[in-house]
Amino acid sequence: MMLGRDMENPSFGSRHRRVKRLASRTGIISSVPDRCSNQELGMSNEQEGVLNRRQFVAAAAAACAACWCGGPALAKENGVLECGVLGDYPADGIYDKFARRGVFIVRHEGRLYAMHARCTHKGGRLRRNGDDQLKCPEHGAEFSIQGTPTKEPASVSLPRFAIAADANGAVRVDTDREFGERQWDDPAAFVKLSPS
Asked: For 80-120, what is each residue's pLDDT tens digit?
């Protein structure tokens, strides 16, 4: 069966003829057709050439990659993650519920903020190291609860994402908006919490 670009490739024809000769000599296949009609393939004439082999393989690979990575934990639309409500973060500490989505939610000193979950050294996936520290398992870099590096090889602080809470306390993180250390006091980089 010839698909897409193979029909236009002259070397494919010679390979096809060699396979056909070999198959007929060995008696494995008595007849190898040069071409398959659309009807034999179960396609109408309108469907001919809709998807060639390379396009199919690319689509299949993308589908496998999407399945392997897993679906989003929560709906993500235009970089916005729904991250529960303020009550889900009752005490100071690092919350890793959304770490697989690339975000740590942190409550610290009356603020709620969202930090990047990848090491600034080589992009390793960070893990909690107690309630107030993050560690990169790849090269041993460590970060404080604020996101500043406390152990090399990392030398750059973790970026923060825009975060907001609505009147009902629903927390949303916008992963399309990042704030470097100099911008951490920007009102969009944290949610001010009322004293408990």
From this structure: 999 999 999 999 999 999 999 999 999 999 999 999 999 99
What is the longest distance spanned by two Cα atoms in the chain? 87
174 and 101 Cβ atoms separated by less than 8 Å: no
Domain that holds residue 31: 4-69
Percent of residues in the chain assigned helix, strand, coil, to nearest 5: 25, 30, 45
Q: Do residues 187 and 143 both lie within one domain?
A: yes
pLDDT in tens, 136-146: 999 999 999 99
Q: Is 60 helix (H, G, I), strand (E, B) or coil?
A: helix
Domain co-membership, 82 together with 116: yes
58 Cβ neighbours under 8 A, 6+ residues apart: none
**Domain stops at, among 54, 69, 84:** 69
Helix (H, G, I), strand (E, B) or coil at 157: coil
DSSP state of 120: T
Residue position matching structure tokens 């520290």:
133
